[in-house]
Structure formats: structure tokens, C-alpha cells
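Preliminary data (for renewal application), adenosine-5'-diphosphate complex.
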Amino acid sequence: MHDDSVTEFDADETLSALPQTGEREVETTLRPRKLAEFVGQPRVREQLELVLESARRRGVPPDHVLLSGPPGLGKTSLAMIVAAELDAAIRITSGPALERAGDLAAMLSNLAEGDVLFIDEIHRIAKPAEELLYSAMEDFRVDVVVGKGPGATAIPLDVEPFTLVGATTRSGLLTGPMRDRFGFVAHLDFYEPHELEQVVIRSSRILGVQVAEDGAAEIAGRSRGTPRIANRLLRRVRDYAEVRADGVVTREVARAALRVYDVDELGLDRLDRAVLTALVSNFGGGPVGLSTLAVAVGEQPDTVEEVCEPFLVRAGLLARTPRGRVATASGWRHLGKTPPNGIFGSGAPPAPDLFGLES
Ligand code: ADP
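Predicted structure:
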């Protein structure tokens, strides 16, 4: 997945959930091919299995499938699995590539019966293409407008029955009519450490890396709930194991390797830790405004807000309150410091004024 709002930042990329330059090839190698190989997301897997099996039995293409969730959680992999499980061909495009309705019409007219059309970042599709897609999804026909002005004519075009798989990191940006045309909608959640451990073990077999169970667990625990990051950390740790150790990824080797790459036990990188440290050490744990915090770490407020904070919040280390950013008790403890009494997240109720308006 690709998201312009994040890629422009020059942040440390070891822990980015977006694919890095040159990573596509190895990602393809590591992609699960069948539902049974897809680790985690048990509910989505079970539901999808039913949708696909019932369509297979009835001999018709399944309902259109919408997959939403943060980058790196397996949306593209699932789209390919849908095609593989149906023994169907897959055509791949993305919202930003479908700027003109004509591009989409050409793509639709080339589909064979039962094909899967995968549109990544479907929330970024241009309006005219989106409208064309509605009728293609609903009636398997589109009206292609030829010419301009009063002389323009609409030529109806039949489309072979197909299954659309849409992926989005921002399901909130999808229009109602678009969302309504998907018969099956699934949201992917961040993975549990034991699931990521399985991802690491599976990938290590494919890459031919020897990984001890505790080594896999160590990598999994630092991967921010994201398979793409788990696979990347595995490759970094493998490099270290080959150069500095005997090639086997044990817990000690994983720890030593991830120290070199500045990835701490919870999966925080240098900038994440700098933000938390500034919050605790310079501002007594907050509340402090975003821009003040950003200046303290020498970064743009946007970078702090969009690159660091989502994970710090999800990990329960930082809270965003109306009066500003606050380090939670876990945030203090993560830095090896004792949280002050009555602090946010320590079990005691937060101070009442914490939720007052930011002045
Ligand atoms: P997205 O499209 O959501 O950004 P991808 O499907 O491209 O994510 O997944 C990124 C990488 O993570 C893939 O190369 C794949 O190897 C790995 N991956 C994702 N989900 C899983 C999973 N459930 N099981 C195993 N590997 C996974």
C-alpha cells in the first residue's frame, strides 16, 4: 500500500508499514498464496472462505470484496488469494491510476468471465471512474460516453461477470454508494505477537534462515502488529546473524541486531523514543502542545503527528488530550522512570482538568 501523506517524511524507515524501495520482489516471495497459508485474522479468513466456497459451488463469481485496514496487514495478499482460490486471473490497478473513466472502461472491457479485478487505494479513485464502476459492479455493464457536448453519445458496453476486490487504508473516505456495492466488507486488524511469530517462522523457512522460537518471538514483539514490518526485521536480523554470529537467529542475536537498527523492545524507533523522552524529561509528562513537542525533537509537527504518534498511542505510551500530549504511566515506565502519582493510565482516574479545552 502507498500513502502520500506519510511517504514524504524523511523518517527512519526500518519500522515503516509502507513497502520500501526494492522490497517488492522479496514481498512477492513471502506472500501467502492460499487462505490456509494466511496467518491470523481468523474471522476474516473464515468469512472469506465461506464466501468463496459458496460461490464456487454455485458456479458464479463471488460478491465484490472490500478490504480495509492499515498498510502492511495483508490486503494485497488477500486479493491475490481470492483469485488463486477461485482459480481466476487477477488484474491489478489502483485508485490513483484510474484518473480517467476511459482507463477503467478499457480495463473492464478486457476482463474475462470470473476474473478478479483488484483496485488498491480505491478511496483515491477519480469521480468519473467511480461512477462508471458503480454500474459495472451492479449490472456488469457500463455506458462509455464518446464525444463531447451536445454530440456526445453513450455507448453501452457489456462487462463479463467479475469480482472486484478493493483495498483501502481509509475506509472513511469511501462514498456510501461505493461501499454499498461491496457484498463482503472485511476490516483487517493489527496482528497479535503470537500471530506475527508464525509469520516470521513461515518467512524464515521460505528465506532459508534458521530461526529459534525465542528469536521469532523477539522479532514478532517489535513488529508493531504488522507482518510487513516483521518480515523486514527478520531480514535485518538475518543479515546480522550471518555476519556477526553463526547464522542462527536466537533471542540474543535478534536483540543485538535490533539494537543496531535502533528498534527497541516495543518496536519504537529513535524518533518515537525521542518524542516520548522529550515529553517526559522536558515537559514533565505533559500536557504539551504538538508544535512545542515537535520543536523539542527537531521535527515537523506533521511528522510527529502522523509518523510517531499513532503507534505511541496504540502502544498506550502517549495520549492525545484536548490540552495536549500526555505521557501515560506506561510511557514513563518504558523509559525506565517512575510515573508521578495519579497520572493518566496508571489506574487512578485522570485529573479532571485533563479534559478541559486546550488553551
Ligand atoms: P497491504 O496490501 O495490506 O499493504 P500486503 O498484502 O502487501 O499488505 O502484505 C505485506 C507483506 O506482509 C506481504 O509480502 C506478506 O509477505 C506479508 N503478510 C501480510 N499479511 C500476512 C499474513 N496474514 N500471513 C503471512 N504473511 C503476511
